[in-house]
């Protein structure tokens, strides 16, 4: 029988060979992708190459300022990136701006600016928001950059040389707002704000116009069965499941060829088709290639391209889960590992839009709730499978309850000079809290320890499937249990002069600090500043904060605890200051006073 390590080495070599090989046909590219997946799954230990990870956000349109929904896409990606770093991966994280196309051209004209100046201004606003919100991207791509033009032109030439692009004519509906082509079945009647009858996209509600143009077409129809095979062979390629099912359904319907250029006379703000200056490359083909550009394409790009994961909102699923994989198959490139789809934030049950005046400004809110507060709220309340409704009140309540009262309260209790006058990571006494019952700990305490011990695995599973809210729910439940543990044993009532009481008191604090160390470590991807404050207060050094360092409560297993006896960090500041909801308090002064008591 072969040993597992031999099998792994062979699998790794085979994956490497497959990744390096050049493929001529779409079928062989698909075969390569599937074979790599099979080999990966058959390895019991991960290959060295597998320690690379590449995560992307959609690139954002610069026709308007960033709103809460944009920040949400970015925060999810940032959280996964930070989580992978904690796991010891070499992670690349790309975001940026999508700057070509008719609507940008029109927005620049309306602002009276030349398109590039206009794009630079708005792109900087996105960058500012992301920097302010600790979005730790490793690359910020703009589609107006030279490196991207080169990648797009190369990609186009590959498809052209394979006969996958042909000159034809397109006649049909087009939505400039969505930069999307629609069939008659996807269009409905509506009335605009001036009372004119118009046609709109049934999906987005945006206005559509009839378009008739000579342009280049991509042979999308040729890829239907390969896309189906890909999805059937990779049921976790699109997550959550409901969106996987949506894509399968699309692929069972008609899949006409796709127009991939516009006449230059109508669209100047874009990349010209190589060899035909009269045509501009379709903005979605241009935009999707950004993921390759960041990976290094057309030069060496395998290290990143073979481990690519995309975060996308549900409105842009078809572009990512149908067009993009078809383009990639056509170009003989591997397909993304996962497309994580999230739903939308609504306000008052309605999609955020300028015309409705319900756009939530993420920059202003991140000042109000703090950066970490904003991040925590979005990830704790945002559910990928369905839309979430935003209200300020929800944010106040959640952040005060979970960050200020529950987590902050627990830290306060364990570090309060009254209970911990020496300001140290107190000692654990095995007689008070033996590994089996018999000391002063009770059954519920053991249940709590079990839940905290299992937390990394639970959290990992939820982070990996982008159900960050479930990870946070699990952490929050454990924090409540730890508070319950302290409350149950009321260490402030113990008799300090009694040595056994003093040991039990120290043990209660030691166990609680160990729990806090666990929460601080696991929360780093979501609330990096709060976690840093928490771990620093516990005296946990920066190189002791990886997932591999967690090693929860070793003393109960008779092992050494490196933290025991250490002096606590000197920053005694509040972990998360309670937020005052001034608007609500103004409306309800009596209620607020009473609540404060
Ligand atoms: N430029 C394209 C993406 C090209 S990627 C190759 C685009 N840009 S966008 O600015 O309109 O949207 C970017 C992201 O923000 C998308 O994932 C979209 O779903 C997300 N959101 C926009 N509004 C949203 C909400 N109201 N709620 C949550 N996210 C939403 O599409």
Keywords:
single chain, 597 residues, alpha/beta, four-stranded antiparallel beta sheet, 48% helix, disordered N terminus, binds 5'-O-[(L-methionyl)-sulphamoyl]adenosine, ligase, Methionine--tRNA ligase, mitochondrial, EC 6.1.1.10
Straight-line distance between termini: 71 Å
How many strand segments? Answer: 19
Strand content: 5-15%
How many helices in DSSP terms?
21
Segments where pLDDT lies below 50 for 5+ residues?
A: 1-48, 590-597
Radius of gyration: 27 Å
On the 0 to 100 scale, the average pLDDT is 89
User: Could you say which overall geometry the principal axes of the C-alpha atoms support?
Assistant: elongated
InterPro entries: Anticodon_Met, Met-tRNA_synth, Met-tRNA_synth_2, Methionyl/Leucyl_tRNA_Synth, MetRS_core, Rossmann-like_a/b/a_fold, tRNAsynth_Ia_anticodon-bd
GO molecular function, one term: methionine-tRNA ligase activity
Keywords: Aminoacyl-tRNA synthetase, ATP-binding, Ligase, Mitochondrion, Nucleotide-binding, Protein biosynthesis, Transit peptide
Domain Methionyl-tRNA synthetase anticodon-binding: 438-542
């Amino acid at each position: 029988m072969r040993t597992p390590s031999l099998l792994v080495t062979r699998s790794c070599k085979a994956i490497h060979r497959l990744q390096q090989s050049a493929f001529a046909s779409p079928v062989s590219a698909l075969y390569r992708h599937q074979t790599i997946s099979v080999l990966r799954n058959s390895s019991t230990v991960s290959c060295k190459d597998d320690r690379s990870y590449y995560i992307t956000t959609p690139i954002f349109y610069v026709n308007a300022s960033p709103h809460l929904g944009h920040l949400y896409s970015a925060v999810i990606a940032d959280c996964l990136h930070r989580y992978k770093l904690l796991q010891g991966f070499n992670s690349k994280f790309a975001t940026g701006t999508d700057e070509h196309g008719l609507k940008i051209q029109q927005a620049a004209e309306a602002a009276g600016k030349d398109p590039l100046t206009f794009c630079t201004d708005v792109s900087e606003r996105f960058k500012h928001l992301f920097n302010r919100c600790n979005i730790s991207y490793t690359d910020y791509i703009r589609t107006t950059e030279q490196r991207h033009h080169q990648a797009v032109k190369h990609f186009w030439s590959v498809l052209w040389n394979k006969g996958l692009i042909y000159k034809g004519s397109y006649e049909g509906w087009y939505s400039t707002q969505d930069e999307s082509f629609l069939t008659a079945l996807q269009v409905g009647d509506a009335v605009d704000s001036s009372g004119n009858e118009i046609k709109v996209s049934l999906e987005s509600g945006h206005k559509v116009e009839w378009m008739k143009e000579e342009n280049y077409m991509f042979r999308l129809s040729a890829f239907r069965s390969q896309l189906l095979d890909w999805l059937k062979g990779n049921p976790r390629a699109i997550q959550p499941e409901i969106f996987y099912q949506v894509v399968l359904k699309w692929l069972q319907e008609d899949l006409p060829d796709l127009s991939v250029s516009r006449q230059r006379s109508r669209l100047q703000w874009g990349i010209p088709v190589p060899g035909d200056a009269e045509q501009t490359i379709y903005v979605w083909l241009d935009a999707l290639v950004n993921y390759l550009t960041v990976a290094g394409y057309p030069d060496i790009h395998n290290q990143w391209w073979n481990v690519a994961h995309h975060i996308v909102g549900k409105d842009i699923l078809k572009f990512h889960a149908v067009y993009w994989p078809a383009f990639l198959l056509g170009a003989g490139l591997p397909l993304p590992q996962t497309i994580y789809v999230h739903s939308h934030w609504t306000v008052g049950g309605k999609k955020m839009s300028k015309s409705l005046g319900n756009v939530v400004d993420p920059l202003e809110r991140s000042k109000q709730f703090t950066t970490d507060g904003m991040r925590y709220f979005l990830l704790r309340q945002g559910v990928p499978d369905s839309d979430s409704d935003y209200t300020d009140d929800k944010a106040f309540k959640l952040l005060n309850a979970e960050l200020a009262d529950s987590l902050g309260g627990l830290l306060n209790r364990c570090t309060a000079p009254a209970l911990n006058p020496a300001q140290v990571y107190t000692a654990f006494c095995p007689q008070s809290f033996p590994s089996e019952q018999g000391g002063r700990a009770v059954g519920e305490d053991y249940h709590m320890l079990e839940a905290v011990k299992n937390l990394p695995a639970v959290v990992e599973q939820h982070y990996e499937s982008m159900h960050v809210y479930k990870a946070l729910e699990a952490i929050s439940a454990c924090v409540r249990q730890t508070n319950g543990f302290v409350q149950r044993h009321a260490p402030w009532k113990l008799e300090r002069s009694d040595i056994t009481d003093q040991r039990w008191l120290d043990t209660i604090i030691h166990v609680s600090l160990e729990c806090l160390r666990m929460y601080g470590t696991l929360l780093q991807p979501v609330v990096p500043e709060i976690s840093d404050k928490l771990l620093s207060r516990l005296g946990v050094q920066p190189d002791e904060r990886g997932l591999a360092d967690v090693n929860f409560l070793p003393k109960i297993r008779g092992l050494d605890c490196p933290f025991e006896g250490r002096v606590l960090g000197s920053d005694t500041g509040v972990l998360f200051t309670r937020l005052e909801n001034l608007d609500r308090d103004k409306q309800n002064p009596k209620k607020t006073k009473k609540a404060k008591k």
